[in-house]
Design a protein that fits this description.
Layout: H1 3-20, E1 22-27, E2 30-35, E3 41-43, H2 46-55, E4 60-62, H3 86-92, E5 96-99, H4 107-110, E6 116-118, H5 126-140, H6 144-165, E7 171-177, E8 180-184, H7 192-195, E9 213-214, H8 217-223, E10 227-232, H9 233-237, H10 244-248, H11 251-254, H12 257-260, E11 264-266, H13 269-274, H14 279-295
Parallel strand pairs: 3-4, 3-5, 5-6, 7-10, 10-11
Antiparallel strand pairs: 1-2, 7-8, 8-9
Helix pairs in contact: 2-5, 5-6, 6-14
């Protein structure tokens, strides 16, 4: 074989090997081809980080604050969810960057440094997106068995929670924010809490916005839900301001069926608000609801 042909053959083998190291996966913006089983990954989305942690993926660096204690070990100097530190990121030299949600607007800028994917989870059928992301990450990082086990656990927990809430009445999901109140329905940001487990809404037709529909204490009393599910935004982001418990500690809320029955349930706002769709945050939310409703007579 001539040197020219040998060189061509070697180049072909190298090209094939390089191609074999890539995999095409589904993302929030469509199919993307990225390195298979990357050894160094920068993560700017807490829902994604929640899943990678659950799968046992190694080589991860995340933002300077993950907001969630169970993900704090991944905190690094690569910036925040809204403002990446491009100098630090360049020094890290990740093989893959995962963005999404709050960092989705930075995808184009991040892609100049390394292959970048938008793994936002949002909108209708959120838990279907959770299942899909688990499968995707499983294939990407050779964690298929772990992904399948987590998916099965999710399905089991949904079934158990659905059984716990059955015939226990209506619920209203409230977000407190330093004294202000917003309500969410089945068509909103946290609508899966109603749709996935068959939990009836106390009020139908609430405005479908990311921040919910602004409501008053009187609105809640008029709706008079059997259950009030509460998210505390201040606690979720580690901010300063009145707590959810303090906000709802008043005679108007006390006059509702939920308060009289002891059916005000405080969810882990950080997990839902910051890492929405993450498998660990979702399982925890389901467990809190299952336990609260299951303990009710």
């Amino acid at each position: 074989m001539s040197r020219t042909l040998l060189k061509a053959a070697l180049l072909a083998v190298m090209a094939t090997a390089a191609q074999a190291e890539d995999v095409t996966i589904d993302t929030a913006t469509g199919p993307a081809t990225v390195p298979h089983a990357p050894k160094t990954v920068a993560v700017y989305d807490m829902g994604a980080l929640d899943m990678l942690d659950a799968l046992g993926v190694e080589g991860i660096s995340a933002t300077s604050s993950t907001f969630l204690p169970y993900l704090s070990e991944y905190q690094s100097d690569i910036g925040t969810l809204f403002e990446p530190d491009f100098e630090a990121l360049n020094a890290l030299a990740p093989e893959l960057i995962i963005a999404g949600g709050r960092s989705a607007t930075q995808v184009d800028a991040l892609a100049k440094l390394a292959p970048t994917i938008d793994m936002t989870m949002w909108g209708d059928n959120l838990l279907d997106q959770t299942r899909a992301r688990l499968a995707t990450y499983g294939a990407l990082f050779d964690k298929q068995n772990e992904a399948a086990a987590l998916t099965a656990k999710l399905d089991d927990e949904i079934a158990a929670t659905e059984a716990a809430v059955r015939d226990k009445g209506t619920a209203l999901l409230i977000l407190t924010n330093g004294g202000k109140l917003s309500a969410y329905g089945a068509g909103g940001r946290f609508g899966w809490i109603h749709s996935e487990i068959g939990l009836p809404e106390a009020v139908a037709g609430l405005t479908d916005t990311s921040h919910g529909e602004s409501v008053s204490f009187e609105f809640i009393r008029e709706a008079d839900p059997d259950w009030i599910l509460v998210l505390d935004r201040v606690a979720a982001i580690g901010g300063e301001g009145e707590s959810a418990q303090a906000t709802l500690d008043n005679p108007i809320i006390a006059d509702t069926k939920a308060a009289k029955a002891g059916h005000i349930v405080y969810l882990n706002a950080g997990g839902i608000y910051i890492a929405g769709g993450g498998i660990q945050s979702t399982l925890e939310t389901l467990d809190i609801i299952k336990t609260a409703f299951g303990d009710a007579s």
